[in-house]
Request: fold
Amino acid sequence: MFKKQLLIVFFSLSLFGFGQVGGQSVYQFLNMMTSPRQAALGGKVITIYDYDVNQAIFNPAVINPEMDNQLSANYGNYFGEITYGTAAYAYTWDRRVQTFHIGMNYVNYGTFEGRDEYGMTTESFTGNDAALSVGYAYNIPWSDIYVGANLKLISSTLETYSSFGAALDLGAIYIDDRNDINIALAVRNIGTQITTYAGTQEKLPLEIIAGISQELEHVPIRWHLTLENLQQWNVAFSNPIYAEQSIDGSTKEDKPSFINNAMRHVIAGVELFPKKSFNIRLGYNFRRGAELKMEDQRTFAGLSAGVGIKFGNVRFSYSYSRFTAAGSTSLIGLMINLQ
Reply:
């Protein structure tokens, strides 16, 4: 009965809320992938409940004592000169107070050549974004439900313009140990700009994410299913490449179908040998694949893959995410057990 009620809540949340998808809000870097493991599984996975201290940046409800004294650092090249990275650490105070989490993510957009209104060269400039978060989770008494929150401080500098903001992430996860199923919900980036770039108040990239995962009983595989951008139903757009020309010269716009739009909310991933020292991870992001596909050319956009290797107290992870024929991203990470 509880599972049915929880699923009803998940899907009901997708029917309301203000939608912000790409280009409609500030601080978009807050929704970038936070670790190679998450990237390899397609991104935005919120159901991993284990030692992985990186996961709490996306869903604070997964903060748990198994993360105690785990320190992680991740780094990747995005496109061109853009680089980004994350870091995380968790500490268990004691059995009563439980575990606190600190996370950080940043993006450096590289160096730009300045030009004035006449096209003449001026001074070069840079841009960067950063966020620092503090999180905590709590087990609801006599239940298998955990809830958590992250408080984030956000800083952004673009040329001579700067902005400062604050946001809150809320998360919940239900752990069914008997069937090894995790069901989670996260509402991210609830907040505001404290100072603006140039006097105009802009929205933060609010996002509602739901997910479910299960480790199979007789096969060393854990599958993940994530539903992203539930705050906005229509995330598809008309692509002019697929517009149809009629005989009279008029143009019929491309209109994504109901199923096409629904699938753009889906991210699927599998992890082979999730509890072993060597892991293989595969994922597919349907929205990325649909938005970045090219006509008459197979680009494999939306696919991602990665590996994880443990050496003693150190875990190494790598991911490769396919975007277009001209661009892909790689992310590497290290996690150290300081105990």
